[in-house]
User: What shape does this take?
Amino acid sequence: MPLRLAVCVSGRGSNLVALLRALAGSALARVVLVLSNRADAPALERAREWGVKAVSLANPRDGAEWLRHLHGEQVELVVLAGYLKLVPAEVIAAYRDRMVNIHPALLPEFGGPGMYGHHVHEAVLRSGVGFSGATIHLVDEEYDRGAILAQARVPVLPGDTPDSLAARVLKAEHLLLPVVVLKAAEAGRPVPLPEPLELPA
Ligand code: GAR
Assistant: This one.
């Protein structure tokens, strides 16, 4: 039986689509539900195009509503892929060690409240570091602080703008997320990847 996944989104949904593409025809894992805090998130449309049930939460702060949907679809693993709001504590508790988040930088640096999207890439460029990348980690009660499962590094190049860096990191995200999800499906739970993925510019 394929591992039953929910993907939670707030916006565009490119990571969702990368995952759907990678899992197409897979016997290991299947996206059975997409949840969003925003009714107008383009990601919900992407999900429906792929024939996946897509739900806009009436009240994203209501954990009981989340759990009704997640349990209703017998979800075993929750993937936050560009979900930019706090997940209710009771959902985190119910899916402890079974909920992962993708973050567009190399945690533990450049994470925490307010660190999402372009804010992350601006902070990376301001800091002058030579590398950025994508991190997938377990979700706990603190923003971006759960155990790190996998990272993919990309270089920061001279002349990078937040947009050019974001695009390079996003490609890394699209490669890393399916690898981690398929590993989780094989193991029956999220597990760390032994090696960081090293990606060219
Ligand atoms: C991705 O870059 C993801 O890492 C980031 O939002 C983007 C969503 O893009 N998440 C965060 O910043 C979480 N702190 P997508 O909707 O095209 O997948």
Notes: The longest helix spans residues 162-187.
